[in-house]
Amino acid sequence: TGLRARGIKPADVSALMAEAFSEQIFMHGWIHCDPHPANVLVNNYKNGKKPQIILLDHGLYKEIDDDFRFKYAHLWKALIQSDEAAIHQYASAMNCGDMYQLFAGLLTRKTWDDILDSSDVDHLMFYCTEEENKQVQSFALQNGVDIQRILAKLPQ
Question: pLDDT value at position 3?
Answer without folding.
Answer: 87
